[in-house]
């Protein structure tokens, strides 16, 4: 089953939890956070899909980009969430930056925000 960007964002947002050393899992955020978090996720899903299509990102690259931009996850957190190694996360990030034509993660976020603003202005007109 292939999930689109919106479904992947929703999947990740609904499963944010904290795993204790003893293996117990505790929900970090209550239902208030989850319902509050739904609105930006719905709004950013289409834009992330458009951004991914424009730069020809794979689904995994899009998922990793979303985890960084929407949730601010570090490489280790992304690796745990996606069940891949941290080295694989770094490889995906390198591929993303090569496809976009940037050399720094610091430039990635403003580029994505510019894309979001452009998309928003385009839909307003």
TrEMBL record:
Residues 50-116 form the HTH luxR-type domain. SMART domains: HTH_LUXR (SM00421). Coiled coil: none annotated. PROSITE patterns: HTH_LUXR_1 (PS00622), HTH_LUXR_2 (PS50043). InterPro entries: Sig_transdc_resp-reg_C-effctor, Tscrpt_reg_LuxR_C, WH-like_DNA-bd_sf. It comes from the Bacteria. Keywords: DNA-binding, Transcription, Transcription regulation. The keyword Transcription regulation applies. Pfam families: GerE (PF00196). This is Helix-turn-helix transcriptional regulator. It comes from Paenibacillus radicis (ex Xue et al. 2023).
């Amino acid at each position: 089953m292939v999930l689109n960007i919106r479904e992947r964002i929703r999947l990740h947002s609904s499963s944010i939890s904290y795993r204790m050393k003893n293996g117990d899992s505790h929900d970090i955020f209550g239902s208030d956070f989850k319902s509050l978090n739904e609105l930006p996720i719905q709004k950013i899903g289409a834009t992330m899909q458009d951004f991914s299509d424009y730069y020809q990102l794979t689904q995994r690259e899009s998922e990793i980009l979303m985890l960084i931009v929407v949730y601010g996850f570090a490489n280790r957190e992304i690796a745990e969430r996606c069940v891949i190694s941290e080295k694989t996360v770094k490889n995906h990030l390198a591929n993303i930056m090569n496809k976009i034509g940037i050399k720094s993660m610091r430039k990635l976020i403003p580029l994505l925000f510019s894309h979001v603003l452009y998309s928003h202005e385009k839909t307003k007109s």
